[in-house]
């Protein structure tokens, strides 16, 4: 008994140290005299933003610099909320768990790579938060991880967006049916995708019923039902604890998922990519569904051939909460520019365009109480630009997460790696090709190979 | 009447009826009251541009407008020469993931006789999507292998490849480069060296044969070697795709040794590392994509944005490309990023107009607003590098091109869809638990 007590004390101590480690740095700073693009309260000229202990404590004119607080002169510069990417695959050491068409039990939180230099490059584009997503090889993929880009720590936990709602990846259309065809199993059509979803949720309901019955009438003689993490996660989806982000393109499959969700009482859904969401914009708005789309990517496969760059504008005008995402380690560096394209394609206002990469993704990820706009009380996740961020000539100058400066163009050393592979004596040169950038199916191909007769 | 038609055209592109087909029109057009960026002869404030018989007949502050010309008032707007994307797959690639919809890659390593122009689909959906953004000409390229084929300059309007041809072709060569990526990871240093030697042997054998072939007469047909002869004779340009710094240096040596007169370096991702050497060689460069990730993990995050500017400042003649197919329309933004990160707006504009035209060998025809040149021009509400600017009028080969594309038509159809939803009853009834 005494040893048990000792063990508990030790355990408590470890837990304490654990939380101490997880305590991420918070900064104090006064950003003076900038043009402040609040997103929620318009544009404020010659305005100061005071940050104390990682939070925005005051926005106003002529704020006096408290003792010990660093002052940053933003005269002639633009201060905006840190950009949020609702669909990213940077900082993930694995993307697809493709061993089954349903892998709700796995989570991206286990594969966060805090040493990916892409994180720094995203910061250099004014990005402060990302939604690290599982891939799209299977119908019900793994759980995603909402992160803050606190680059420099080698502890994956330091990058977690503490308190963010849990989310999970679903995928419809070509990707999961491709997997089915490669293995000779269902689904090989959009019909099969629907049934796989319905079957999975029905199984989850039955699983829950068993546990409910067991819990309602516990006795020493009864054996508990088998614990199944996959089913637990699906139940969490049914209960609204885990939010679905569904890879989708065509209007028909988007509509199908709305019907499936309504049948199972799930009322929250964010469609990812959703190139044809514009075709069912009124239905999405009526349902309260949201969409996270590309500014202009199309034609890389059949299901995105009937796209239009006006997608985000049509959705916005129809009342659908919309964000613009990157799904790319390249695009993530200029999401402000991607948002600006909605002014060419659909005449969105400055605030509407900026919201596509700040407030709207924050709402979709359930973190808009913390980030997404410049407001007193919110986290000091801030980007400072030379030139208006919606101008092609805009240059991100500084990026703060929790008031801590993680990027400063004026004091930027070239090599920002925090880990260098000792085995590589010659540094690898990789020639960029935009068409190689899709990580959504990464790892899935090797899975198909695994099941094919000829192994490479 | 003429002015009436002009007024109706923009209306037609929004709210088009089902049975209306918008066609391009030729004729005499006077674009008045515009700020005209000639690129080669400065900016004309409040100028007039006269288009007739497909060419620019007059340009300046005081131009007599013929009575039969259709007048387009461009007050408050700007006119530019059509933008030229000097590296694309436009017309050759329709849907990325579908092999049957891609015609830019032929089987084999030595296929320089393959003609991109023959495989250009004039009715590609990508073409109108691209041109309504002000891109009037693209360099469309075969890819893959060592000598994948012959690229062609095409104007983005026409119903046959010949109607589209901008009159220039060039041989594409992928310069032997040190293996990278997953292939390299499976090789040791010795294997990499061997692979590089093999690639050089393939290339040099082909060009040795071409040089011999150029000397001799009455030879039997040898298509892949014959295709190279115009380069050997200095009648056609050779476009060498090369990216890593070491490979660029080795390409410079190779060109010097071979002594070919017309050579252009393309890609040149790491050009900024060896800008002085490239400048010394006098070879022009087609750089891009600009919106790209650095080639090395240790590189500063913005080196790809800065690359064209570094090269230009070193004295290299630079054109910018997207190396894209469906999003070649983003060319002005690639140029805009280059402008912001060191190149400056004026030089970036040249990089997608006159420099591109000179490098592709079509500057006698296009690339600037000059009397006698082909009327490839567009009218913009402002700086075309800015995303907020709109292209309002477009001319290719003197044809007034309808400002529509499938993407615009989908916008028109779906912005306020009919039928929408009945707001009085739920569209989809969410079953409450």
Automatic annotation (TrEMBL), chain A:
Pfam family, one: Amidohydro_1
Keyword Membrane included in the entry's annotation: no
Keywords: Signal
Entry-linked InterPro entries: Amidohydro-rel, Metal-dep_hydrolase_composite, Metal_Hydrolase, Metallo-dep_Hydrolase
Stretch forming the signal peptide: 1-22
Record bears the keyword Membrane: no
Domain Amidohydrolase-related: 311-397
Domain of life the protein comes from: Bacteria
SUPFAM superfamilies xref list: Composite domain of metallo-dependent hydrolases, Metallo-dependent hydrolases
Molecular functions (GO terms): hydrolase activity, acting on carbon-nitrogen (but not peptide) bonds
Listed transmembrane segments: none
Name of this chain's protein: Imidazolonepropionase
Native organism: Roseivirga pacifica
From TrEMBL, chain B:
Protein name: Imidazolonepropionase
Pfam families: Amidohydro_1, NagA_N
Molecular function via GO: hydrolase activity, acting on carbon-nitrogen (but not peptide) bonds
Domain Amidohydrolase-related: 315-398
Signal sequence coordinates: none
């Amino acid at each position: 008994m005494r040893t048990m007590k000792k063990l508990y004390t030790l355990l408590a101590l470890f837990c304490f140290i654990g939380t101490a480690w997880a305590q991420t740095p918070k900064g104090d700073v006064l950003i003076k005299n900038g043009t402040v693009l609040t997103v929620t309260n318009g544009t404020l000229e010659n305005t100061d933003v005071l940050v104390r202990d990682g939070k925005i404590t005051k926005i106003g004119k002529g704020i006096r610099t408290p003792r010990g607080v660093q002052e940053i002169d933003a005269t002639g510069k633009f201060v905006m909320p840190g950009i949020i990417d609702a669909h990213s695959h940077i900082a993930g050491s694995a993307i697809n768990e493709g061993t089954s068409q349903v892998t709700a039990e796995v989570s991206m939180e286990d594969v966060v790579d805090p040493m990916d230099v892409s994180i720094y490059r995203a910061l250099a584009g004014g990005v402060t938060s990302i939604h690290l997503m599982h891939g799209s090889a299977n119908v019900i993929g793994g759980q995603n991880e909402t992160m803050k880009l606190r680059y420099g720590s080698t502890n994956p936990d330091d990058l977690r967006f503490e308190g963010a709602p849990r989310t999970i990846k679903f995928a419809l259309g070509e990707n999961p049916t491709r997997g089915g065809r490669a293995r000779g199993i269902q689904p090989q059509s959009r019909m099969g995708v629907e049934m796989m979803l319905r079957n999975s949720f029905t199984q989850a309901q039955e699983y829950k019923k068993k546990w409910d019955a067991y819990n309602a009438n516990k006795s020493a003689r009864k054996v508990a039902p088998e614990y199944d993490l996959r089913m637990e996660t699906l139940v969490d989806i049914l209960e609204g604890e885990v939010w679905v982000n569904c890879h989708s393109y065509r209007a028909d499959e988007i509509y199908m998922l709305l019907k499936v969700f309504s049948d199972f009482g799930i009322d929250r859904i964010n469609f990812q990519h959703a190139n044809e969401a514009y075709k069912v914009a009124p239905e999405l708005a009526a349902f309260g569904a949201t969409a996270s789309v590309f500014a202009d990517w199309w034609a890389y496969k059949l299901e995105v051939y009937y796209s239009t760059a006006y997608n985000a504008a049509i959705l916005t005008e129809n009342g659908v909460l919309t964000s613009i995402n990157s799904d790319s380690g390249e695009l993530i560096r200029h999401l402000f520019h991607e948002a600006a394209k909605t002014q060419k394609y659909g005449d969105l206002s400055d605030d509407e365009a900026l919201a596509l990469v700040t407030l709207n993704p924050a709402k979709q990820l359930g973190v808009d109480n913390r980030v997404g706009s410049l407001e007193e009380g919110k986290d000091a996740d801030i980007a400072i630009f030379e030139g208006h961020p919606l101008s092609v000539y805009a240059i991100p100058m500084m990026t703060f997460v929790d008031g801590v400066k993680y990027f400063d163009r004026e004091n930027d050393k070239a090599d920002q790696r925090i880990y260098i592979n000792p085995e590589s004596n010659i540094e690898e040169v990789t020639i960029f090709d935009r068409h190689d950038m899709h990580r959504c199916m990464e790892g899935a191909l090797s899975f198909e190979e695994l099941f094919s007769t000829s192994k490479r | 009447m003429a002015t009436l038609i002009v007024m109706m055209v923009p209306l037609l592109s929004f709210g088009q009826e089902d049975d209306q087909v918008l066609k391009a029109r030729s004729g005499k057009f006077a674009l008045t009251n515009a700020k005209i960026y000639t690129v080669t002869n400065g900016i004309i404030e409040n100028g007039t541009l006269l288009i007739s018989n497909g060419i620019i007949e007059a340009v300046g502050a005081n131009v007599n407008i013929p009575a039969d010309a259709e007048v387009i008032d461009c007050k408050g707007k700007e006119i530019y020469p059509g933008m030229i994307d000097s590296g694309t797959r436009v017309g050759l690639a329709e849907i990325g993931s579908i092999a049957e919809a891609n015609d830019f890659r032929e089987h084999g390593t030595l296929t320089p006789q393959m003609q991109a122009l023959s495989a250009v689909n004039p009715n590609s959906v990508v073409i109108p999507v691209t041109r309504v953004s002000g891109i009037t000409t693209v360099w469309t390229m075969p890819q893959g292998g060592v000598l994948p084929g012959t690229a062609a300059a095409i104007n983005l309007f026409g119903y046959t490849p010949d109607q589209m041809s901008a009159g220039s072709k060039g041989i594409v060569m992928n310069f032997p480069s040190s293996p990278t990526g997953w292939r390299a990871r499976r090789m040791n240093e010795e294997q990499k060296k061997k692979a590089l030697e093999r690639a050089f042997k393939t290339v040099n054998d082909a060009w040795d044969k071409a040089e011999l072939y150029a000397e001799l007469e009455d030879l039997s047909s040898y298509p892949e070697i014959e295709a190279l002869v115009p380069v050997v004779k200095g009648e056609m340009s050779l476009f060498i795709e090369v990216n890593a710094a070491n490979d660029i240096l080795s390409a410079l040596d190779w060109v010097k040794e071979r002594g070919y007169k017309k050579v252009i370096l393309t890609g040149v991702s790491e050009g900024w590392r060896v800008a002085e050497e490239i400048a010394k060689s006098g070879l022009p460069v087609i750089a891009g994509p600009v919106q790209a990730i650095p080639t090395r993990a240790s590189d500063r995050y913005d080196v790809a944005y800065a690359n064209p500017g570094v090269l230009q400042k070193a004295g290299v003649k630079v054109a910018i490309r997207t190396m894209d197919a469906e999003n070649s329309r983003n060319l002005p933004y690639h140029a805009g990023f280059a402008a912001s990160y060191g190149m400056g707006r004026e030089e970036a504009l040249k990089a997608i107009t006159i420099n591109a035209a000179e490098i592709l060998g079509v500057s006698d025809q296009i690339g600037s607003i000059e009397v006698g040149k082909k009327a490839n021009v567009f009218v913009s509400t402002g700086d075309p590098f800015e995303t907020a600017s709109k292209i309002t009028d477009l001319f290719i080969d003197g044809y007034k091109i309808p400002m529509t594309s499938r993407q615009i038509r989908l916008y028109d159809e779906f912005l306020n869809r009919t039928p929408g939803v009945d707001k009085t009853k739920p569209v989809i009834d969410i079953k409450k638990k």
